[in-house]
User: Fold these one by one.
Assistant:
Number 1:
Amino acid sequence: MFTGIIQSIGSILDLKQKGGDVELSVHTGKLDLQDVVLGDSIAVNGVCLTAIKLGKDNFSADVSCETLSLTSLGGLTKGSPVNLEKALTLQTRLGGHLVSGHVDGLATVESRHADARSIRFCIQAPNELAKYIAEKGSITVDGVSLTVNKVDGVTFELNIVPHTLLETIIGNYQAGTKVNLEVDVVARYLERLLQGDNAAIKSGDKKDGISQEFLAQYGFYKK
C-alpha cells in the first residue's frame, strides 16, 4: 500500500526485453533506499513494482506484458521521468489516501491552463471508470493522491498547486499525455457491497445490474 505522496522524481535508466516482458531499471533521485531490501515494493508512476536488484541510487523490477499493455509504463523510454514512492509502513503519515498501486486504467490529459499560481488540468477517464470519480473525492494520477475539483461525464478537473508541480511529473503534462488512474478503493468495495447476494452469481448468469428494485429490496431506495 501507498499514500499517493510522491517521494522523488526518478528517471528510467534502461528497459531490457526479457522473454516478452521487460526488466525496468530506475534511477531513484533523492529517494532514500537505505531501508529498502530485495522484494520490497516501490510505486513507479502509481504502478506497484517489486525490487529485484538494488543499487545505491537505483533499482530494477520486472514488468509483465499485462502491466506494459494496461499502464503508461509501456510507453516509457530511457530518460523518462517517473514518480516514485516506497511502500508505506505503520509509522508512515497518511498524508494522501490509501493507494494500492494497482492501476485501473489509462486516462488522457485533454487540456491545461493557468489558474493563478496553480495549473488546472482536464482529464478524460475511460468510460468504465467514470462512475467511481466523484467531485471532491480522491483520485490517484500517476501515483499522486489528488482531489477531484469538478466532474462532467467522463472528464474531471484537477487544480495542481506549485509544490506538486515541482515535486511530481505532473508539471510536464500536456494535452494528449497518457496517465495512470487508480480510483478510490472505497468506491470499488461499495459497488461490490451494493450487489448483495448477486455478487455470488457468475456474470453470465446475471440478468440485470443495480436497479431501483434492487436498491429498494436492500433498503437503499424507497419507491
Note: Residues 187-217 form one domain.
Number 2:
Amino acid sequence: MTDTRAGFVALIGEPNAGKSTLLNRMVGAKVSIVTHKVQTTRTRIRGIAMAGQSQIVFVDTPGLFQPRRRLDRAMVAAAWGGAADADIVVLLIEAHRGITDGVRQIVETLKTHEGSQPVALAINKIDRVEAKVLLALTKEMNALYPFVRTFLISAEKGHGVEDLRDWLAGELPEGPWLYPEDQIADLPLRMIAAEITREKLTLRLHQELPYQLTVETESWEEREDGSARIDQIVYVARDGHKGIILGKKGETIKSVSQSARAELEDFMGRKVHLFLQVKVRPNWLEERERYNEMGLDFRDGNE
C-alpha cells in the first residue's frame, strides 16, 4: 500500500492571467517563459512540484482566447486538451480585470465538461484590488460555476500559493510518482533552450514582431570541458522581419543571444556557447512539422 500521490493539474485562463508565473512559483524554478505579451506559452509545458508525499505535474496551457489563425486554433485546442487530460483543473483569473467576456466563455466551456474532474478557482493579483472587490468577485464567480474551492493568490509575490499547492497535493489520486523526484519539467532541454531564446526575443522586440517567429534548437554538442554548444535557428515569415531581429549592426541578435545564454547557464549550472542564426521561412505558420515540434495538433481547414 502506497501513501504517495501523483497526478496532473491543468492551469487554464485567459492570456496573461499569470499561469506561467504561478507554475514557476509552484515548481520553484523557471520552466515556463514569462513575458508581458499575451499568448506566450505555445506548448503544454509540464512543471513538476513536490509537496510532501505528493507529486503535482502541472500542465501549463496556452491562454484561451478567440482563435483566428491556424496557430491560434492549435493553441486553444492544446489548452482544452490539457484540461481534459488532467486530474484537477485550476481556472486562474485576474482580480483587477474581474469577469471579462473571455472568462465567461471559459466558464461556459467548463460547463460542457462538468463532472469529469474537480475545478478550483484561483483569483490572482489580489494585491491590486480592495478586499470588498475581492469578496464580490468571489461570490459572482461561484454563482457562475460550482468551483470546489476558491483561492486568493498573488503568483508574483507568493501569497496564497502554498495553500493552493497543499490543497492540490491532498486531492491528487494515490499512486506512485510519475517522474524522478529531481526532475522539474518533462520538456527536453533542447526545447527549453529554444523557449528561453524566444522569450528574450519577445521581450526585446515588444510590439515590432508579433508571433511570426519560432526558435528551434538545431544542434546540441556536449563538450569535454563540461560546457555545451547550442546552435539555434530563429525562423521568421518575412524578409523584413529578419532585419528587425538582427538589428543595426547585429546589435539586437547579439543582445538576445547574451541574455539567453546567461539564463541557460543559470538554468543548467554550466557554461554554454550559444549561436543564433536567422532564416526566412515564409510558410512556417502552415507547416505540420513546426506544430509537431511545439507539441501542437496541426489541423487542416478551420476545424
Note: Residues 251-268 form the longest helix (18 residues).
Number 3:
Amino acid sequence: MTANAQRLGWIGMGRMGSAMAELLVKAGYDLSVWNRTRSKAEPLAAKGAKIVDKPSDLADVDVLFTIVSTGKDLEQVYFGKDGVLSGSKSPKILVDSSTIAVEESVELRKRLKERGSDFIAAPVSGNAKVIKAKKLSSVVSGPEAAFKTVEPYIKTFAPQGVSYVGDGELARVCKIAHNVMLGVVIENLIEITLLANKMGVPRHAFLAFMNNGVMGSMFTKYKSPALVNLDWTTTFTPELLRKDLDLGLELGREYDVPMPVTAATREVLQQHIGKALSQPNSEAVLAEDFAKMAETMAELSGMKLESEKQNVPTGLEN
C-alpha cells in the first residue's frame, strides 16, 4: 500500500485545523473530515476532502488526526455519543495536535491502547499565517514505530521541522512550555514597546529595531503588524492562552519548578480578560487576538493607542 492509499481522517476545522488539513488534501491524500459546525468543513470539501456526518464515520480510517480546543472536547469526539470509538472499530493510529493537559493525554492513551490503537501527540508551533507560509513545525511523542508511519503526513503540514522527543506525553510538555513562552514574550514585547512609544519612539520604528537585532524572532516579527496597526484579527484567543499558562503553572507546582514570570504574565492577561468581561460586547472582544491586551496595558500606562498605519513586514513573506 502506497502512502497516498492510506485513508486519513481529520476532526477540527478551526483556524489551524482547516489550514493543516488543506495541505494534506493538496498533497493528494485521501482525507475525510468532520467538524461540529459542518459549514466550516465545506470549503475543504470543495478542494477534494470528503465530509462525514459524525465522528464515528471515521472509525475505519487508517490514521485519524484531531485538533480541538480542550481535553474534554477531545474525549468527547473520541468516546462520546457518536464518537470515533463509540462502536467496535478503531483507527490504527490517532494523531492529536491539540494543546491539552498531560494527565488528560495519559488517560486517553490508556483507553486507546485498550482498543488496540496507537496514540501520537503532535502539537504544533505557529498559526494559520505560519501554515500558509509553510513554516509550521511540530513536536511529537508516542510509540516510535507509529511515529515513523505518520511522520510523512505530519511533515506535509509541518515542513519547518518535526521533532520526535520520545514516548508518552513528552510532546505535551514541550507544547505547554512553548505556549507559556508565547505568553511571556508577547506580554514583555508589549511592555517594552509601550515604554518606548510613551517616550516618543514610533512603535513601528522600535519593533523594526528589535526584529532586525539578535532579540528578533519569527514570533516577534509576525506579531509586529498587530502592535503597530492594532489589527486584532484572531490567531489565538486570550482565554486559550490563559488555559495554557494555567497548564504550565500546574506542571511547575507539580514538579517544584518556580515560574514567577509565568505567574505575573497570567495576572496581566487576567486583567485584560476581566476588562473584556465588563464590556457589553465582551464575547466579541474575547474572540479577538490575545495581542489585544496591548490596549489594556496601554490604558494602565495612561496611553490610548492609535494605528500607525504602517506597512510592516511579517517575516512570513515568500
Note: The longest strand covers residues 161-166.
